[in-house]
């Protein structure tokens, strides 16, 4: 219990154990968790530990990197693993061994943390369970992973018994459950166990994503994603062809593609390069710039949790056309967008036309201001600090 007592005038020490986190082998893996960490570090000392195995050959031996910025420290440990069956078992052992070693090193240097914050239960949550039993440190869990539904192919119900049992154990022993959307939290309650929750949405860097007056003469729609099947990028292209075939003053920007198949699909529809512009995989700052030069975001996903791109678009003052799926309806209403049903390409084409017709009705400054009050680093960091403080108060009393 002594580890819980900290100076009332000082910052709380929160140890983050993250199942996903960006690093040199996977630069976009859990970048939304990294932004949450940056927000939390505005108010508290946040120390992140993330261990990642690499089977690509990029990592030759176990190495670690430590990055510090303000009150945020990130310790990322990379190790070489094999994709063979024996290699996967050895990899699991190495993962947990390196986690334990890093945690013990942290405790030796800084003492026990005031709280442990797990991001995505499997597999980092197993280390939080170990810490709770070994050192008596309470932990809370934030879930970001949108597998608690029937639409995602590799959903929670398809996972093996070990995965489901450990996930349930991690949630059950957590002092607090946070979700980035009500939809995801209700999925956990329905499929894993009943547990009260708080919703803290994804973070947007409002220093990059903010409203800027448009200078382009055409009406530009934008879609940003990795364009995996659940994003239904093909459906966006088909609907855009229906809508834009006879219009000369509209464009569609597609950002984030890495597979040439989607470009071939567009060419097969007869969509020319001046109508549909593919940007490929671009940086976070470049996404902001593209949004600021666009008029409307389109997201045509079959299922979603709480898409970062919607918050980013709203902070840029863009209204959004998106599907009535997952946690999306929690982010949009008539003041900032249009909801349509998944896979309905005709409805999407009609929504594009409606967006052009009604565009002057949207208050872009207000859309941006409202979004910044919901998704900024300061707002999200304060919400986390309030939860940390309430948990500490309960522990101390």
How do you describe this structure in short?
Helix content is 39%, strand content 19%.
List keywords for this structure.
397 residues; alpha/beta; 6-stranded parallel β-sheet
What does this structure look like?
The chain is of the alpha/beta class. 39% of the residues lie in helices and 19% in strands. It is built from twelve helices and 14 strands. The protein has helices spanning 31-40, 85-110, 124-135, 161-173, 182-191, 233-244, 261-268, 284-292, 308-315, 345-358, 364-375, 377-396; strands spanning 13-18, 45-54, 63-69, 72-80, 115-119, 139-143, 176-179, 198-199, 219-224, 250-255, 276-280, 296-299, 320-323, 337-340. The strands form two sheets. The protein has an eight-stranded mixed β-sheet, sandwiched between helices. Helix 7 links the parallel strand 10 and strand 11. The longest helix is centred in the N-terminal third of the chain and has 26 residues, at 85-110. It is globular. The model is unreliable at 1-9 (pLDDT under 50).
The overall pLDDT average reads: 94
Secondary structural class? alpha/beta
Low-confidence stretches: 1-9
Strand composition percent: 15-25%
Largest sheet: 8 strands, mixed
Helix and strand topology:
Blueprint: E1 13-18, H1 31-40, E2 45-54, E3 63-69, E4 72-80, H2 85-110, E5 115-119, H3 124-135, E6 139-143, H4 161-173, E7 176-179, H5 182-191, E8 198-199, E9 219-224, H6 233-244, E10 250-255, H7 261-268, E11 276-280, H8 284-292, E12 296-299, H9 308-315, E13 320-323, E14 337-340, H10 345-358, H11 364-375, H12 377-396
Helix pairs in contact: 1-12, 3-4, 6-10, 9-11, 11-12
């Amino acid at each position: 219990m002594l580890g819980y007592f900290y100076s009332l005038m000082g910052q709380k020490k929160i140890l983050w154990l993250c199942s996903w986190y960006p690093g040199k082998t996977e630069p976009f893996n859990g970048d939304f968790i990294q932004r949450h960490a940056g927000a939390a570090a505005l108010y508290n000392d946040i120390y992140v530990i993330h261990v990642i195995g690499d089977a690509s050959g990029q990592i030759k031996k176990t190495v670690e990197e430590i990055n510090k910025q303000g009150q945020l420290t990130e310790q990322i440990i990379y190790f070489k693993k094999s994709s063979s069956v024996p290699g996967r078992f050895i990899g699991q052992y190495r993962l947990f061994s390196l986690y334990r070693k890093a945690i013990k090193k942290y405790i030796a240097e800084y003492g026990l943390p005031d709280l442990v914050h797990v991001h995505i239960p499997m597999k980092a949550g197993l280390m939080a369970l170990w810490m709770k039993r070994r050192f008596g440190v309470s932990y809370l869990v934030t879930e970001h992973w949108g597998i608690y539904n029937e639409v995602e192919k590799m959903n929670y119900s398809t996972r093996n018994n070990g995965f489901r049992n450990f996930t349930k154990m991690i949630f059950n022993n957590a002092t607090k459950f946070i979700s980035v959307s009500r939809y995801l939290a209700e999925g956990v309650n329905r499929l894993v166990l009943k547990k009260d929750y708080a919703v803290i949405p994804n973070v947007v860097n409002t220093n990059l994503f903010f409203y800027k007056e448009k200078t382009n003469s055409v009406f530009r729609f934008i879609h940003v994603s990795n364009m995996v099947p659940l994003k239904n990028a093909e459906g966006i292209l088909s609907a855009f062809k229906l809508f834009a075939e006879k219009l000369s003053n509209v464009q569609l920007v597609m950002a984030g593609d890495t597979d040439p198949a989607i470009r071939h699909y567009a060419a097969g529809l007869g969509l020319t390069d001046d109508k549909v512009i593919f940007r490929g995989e671009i940086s976070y700052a470049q996404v902001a710039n593209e949004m600021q030069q666009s008029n409307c975001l389109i997201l045509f996903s079959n299922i979603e949790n709480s898409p970062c791109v919607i918050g980013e678009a709203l902070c840029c003052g863009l209204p959004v056309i998106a599907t009535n799926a997952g946690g999306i309806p929690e982010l949009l209403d008539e003041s900032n967008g249009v909801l349509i049903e998944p896979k309905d390409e005709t409805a999407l084409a009609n929504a594009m036309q409606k967006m052009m017709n009604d565009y002057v009705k949207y208050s872009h400054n207000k859309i941006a201001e409202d979004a910044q009050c919901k998704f900024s680093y300061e707002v999200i960091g304060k919400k986390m600090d309030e939860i940390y403080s309430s948990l500490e108060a309960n522990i101390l009393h």
